């Protein structure tokens, strides 16, 4: 599969990508646990069918020490025992925040109560922003048809500023 368009080869596309990456750095440097960030990005990417992002976030999480078992079970997290209650709350919020068009309820009050139980305000700000940003990234990559398979962990670290 060939990409339809190379955003990074386009001056405006590269400028936008750099800004998105800087937002991602702010979230990455937040008090939200990195393992939670990795699980959230992987789950949203699975839901959205973004091969590039599934590839990227699986490899980055593996490089950071995440177990293959947990990564394999992200798609079936509700039927798995390997996630903490806090991670389960974040995954529920990810699914509900990603599937907004599938329900008129948006995020359920029960899900929000679990988020409030497990995360402080700074972590919630990071989590909500992360869900919004990964969904934006998924859409960019799916629209231009960026394929998964060639990502190397850390390949975007030179994009800062």
UniProtKB/TrEMBL annotation:
Classification via InterPro entries: AhpD-like, AhpD_core, CMD-like
Range of residues in the leader sequence: none
Pfam families reported for this sequence: CMD
SUPFAM superfamilies hit by this protein: AhpD-like (SSF69118)
Domain Carboxymuconolactone decarboxylase-like: 24-96
Protein's UniProt name: AhpD family alkylhydroperoxidase
Source organism (scientific name): Streptosporangium brasiliense
């Amino acid at each position: 599969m060939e990409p339809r368009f190379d955003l990074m080869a386009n001056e405006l596309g590269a400028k936008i990508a750099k800004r998105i990456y800087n937002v991602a750095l702010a979230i990455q440097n937040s008090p939200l646990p990195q393992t939670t960030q990795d699980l959230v990005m992987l789950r949203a990417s699975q839901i959205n069918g973004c091969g590039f992002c599934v590839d990227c976030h699986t490899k980055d999480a593996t490089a950071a020490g995440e177990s293959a078992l947990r990564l394999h079970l992200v798609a079936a997290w509700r039927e798995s025992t390997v996630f903490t209650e806090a991670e389960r709350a974040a995954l529920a919020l990810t699914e509900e925040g990603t599937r907004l068009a599938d329900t008129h309820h948006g995020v359920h009050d029960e899900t929000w109560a679990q988020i409030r139980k497990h995360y402080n305000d700074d972590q919630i700000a990071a989590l909500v922003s992360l869900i919004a940003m990964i969904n934006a990234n998924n859409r960019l990559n799916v629209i231009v048809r960026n394929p998964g398979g060639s990502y190397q962990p850390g390949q975007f670290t030179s994009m800062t500023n």
